[in-house]
Design goal:
The chain has helices at 2-25, 40-48, 52-56, 60-68, 94-109, 121-138; strands at 29-32, 35-38, 73-76, 82-85. It is mainly alpha-helical. α2 packs antiparallel against α5.
Length: 147
């Protein structure tokens, strides 16, 4: 399963990077003291909108999986130790969906889900594959070719 997850993570990172590049090129960013932050909320609002579940078609189940089983986030407890914290799953809006997809990326990129071996490989596979399916569905709107 490690090789399968490695390939899935590579595909996810590659497409996510193409999204961020395309979003910046199209002006979906905020600049603060020279730092650029991609504005995923604005993209979700202006380019996708509230009808996202209906538009997803076959990928609707992928979005619902992410919304109902969002990636956990890291937090520091009272002893200043890092711990995983549940993320609420009661919202069903497009901004939350893309916030969860960004957290999937952040958890992977910053090493929190992979440290030589995959942490919770079944859950990681579900989160990655479903996020990838959502991103694949909308990539044409940004003019992203084969990623």
């Amino acid at each position: 399963m490690d090789q399968e997850l490695d390939l899935l993570a590579f595909k996810f990172f590659k497409l996510f990077a193409r999204y961020e590049s395309s979003l910046k090129e199209r002006g979906f960013f905020v600049a603060n003291r020279g730092q650029i932050t991609v504005n995923w909320d604005r993209y979700a609002n202006e380019e996708i909108g509230n009808t996202f579940l209906a538009e997803l078609g076959d990928a609707q189940n992928a979005a619902m999986y992410i919304l109902e089983n969002p990636p956990k986030k890291q937090s520091a407890n009272a002893e200043n130790e890092i711990e995983w914290v549940e993320v609420p799953n009661n919202e069903r809006c497009v901004q939350i969906l893309f916030a969860h997809i960004c957290r999937i990326r952040n958890n992977l990129y910053h090493g929190a889900k992979f440290n030589g071996t995959w942490f919770d490989p079944e859950r990681s596979k579900l989160l990655l594959s479903n996020a990838l399916l959502v991103l694949e569905t909308y990539k044409d709107r940004l003019g992203i070719q084969n990623a």
